[in-house]
Write a structure and sequence with these properties.
CATH topology of the domain at 296-520: Dipeptide-binding Protein, domain 3
Distance between the termini: 26 Å
Structural class: alpha+beta
Largest sheet: 11 strands, mixed
CATH class of the domain at 296-520: Alpha Beta
Shape: globular
Number of helices: 19
CATH superfamily of the domain at 296-520: Dipeptide-binding Protein, Domain 3
Radius of gyration: 24 Å
Length: about 550
Amino acid sequence: MTNRNDEIVIKRRLAGRELLSAAAVAALCAGAGVAVAATPKNALVMAWNVDAISTFDPAQVGEVVTNEILQNTCDTLADFDPADERKVVPSFASRWDVSPDRKEITFHLQKGAKFPSGNPVTAEDVAWSLHRVVKLNFGNAATLTEFGFTKDNVEQTIVAGPNDTLVFKLDKPYPTTLVLQSIAANRVSMVMDKKTLMANEQGGDLGNKYLATRTACVGPYKLTRWNAGESIVLEANDGYWGKAPALKRVLIRHVAEPGTQRLLLSQGDVDVARDLTPEDLKDLEGSKDVSIVKVLKPQLFFWTFNVADGPFSKEKVRLAMRYLIDYDGLGKTIMTYLGVPRASFAQLGAVGALDAKEGQPFKLDLDKAKQLLTEAGYPTGFEASLIFGTLPHSAPLAQSVQQNAAKIGVKLSLERMANAQLFSKVRGREFQSAMMAWQTGVPDAHGNASRLVYNPDNRAEAKQTQYPSWRASFQDKELNAKVDAALLEGDPIKRDALYAEIQKETMAKGPMAIMFQMNNVAGVRKDLKSWTWNGFRTYYELATK
């Protein structure tokens, strides 16, 4: 039951916000004992912390929140099977052919599709969409350049063919499944409206500034409104080439506080709450109106260290920090619903990943941590800063590590900030240590090996911001060579062995202490049906009421 103070707080927070219906707001604020409000029958309404959004350009996006929104507004060539994330299924490409030498893939595209602008979708649009990612050279360009596509060759190696086809011409016989997972099912292949973007180009930016606040692509939904820090509205695309979404609107309300999300969910003013705490989830488990749904996702939460200078430049210091993490205790308390202990960069479920036991060999051990610090030349400890964002588990995890560190003389000063600010600082190498999440786009160990271990260019001016290894100033050329070798190894047994070696070596000296593999977890009203997700996609268009 809602008390009067809660009603006042909620009323103030919701005042002027258009995401929730007027009837819902009135019901929420009318007082205790009113009937539960109902969301519109034709809309999916979510409460979610979406403060990390800074652009809707698939060439630039790196945040999980924005990526999910784009996945529901912009079609990719292929998609992950909702029932089995290791399978790639057709999307805007209805099928594909692979040459015997695995160096050419021909995608057969959907015919007759139109963008929301009314412009027809052509094979040239699809090719240009991939070209612009490489030419803009934001972080997501690495998804293509690591497979041999460059600014100099991309127009000759990704080409629009006859009869609505698109051809990839590869420089090496990369594993076809990995190419499909990494590129065809990735945001870099999202089909963009070339005519609209070029009409709004500024200074040769290929429409990048235009996409800062809007989308221009073909997909089941289109972005119709984004009020930064407030709300997002998606509308079903009329005339979409594929199956029309069951619900015509998706309304996302930015709600930073988990407690407020829980109240809105309990009252019926949202269908889904995305950032609930373990306490909220536990309390809601027995609800007759709300289900707790979760699925393991390829997202890792870790403590990353800037190894450019200071204590974290020492391998033994970084190893010592791993023994300050109470994997077992945190896994049974703060992270009960949110994730599972994991120290390896390769997520559970990925090809080449160590199993649960080998992939998490650490435990809280202050004596071991102290011994390693002494061997590294810090017998009395040191001082350092630790920054983190607004995810509900970030603060308690940081505080736990801070308390354990203090017991061996390491003084960690904590600073909480908005996620967008956190990402900016880490991407600019403006930190000593930070806690944050990273999510790969493929169910293969290469996905994270190529970002959390591999670093192609460690120079500050290289700005390899989509490589967390670069952000941490970490480069190990021997590990780089092993990552390259594992990518092209054709024998599955040898490939797994190479990845096992890389994982074990990285756990000993890598630039980040992986802490947990996260679950996608949400509270969902029981009158919302067919909420569908796997580790790589959330499918708004499949939800029904």
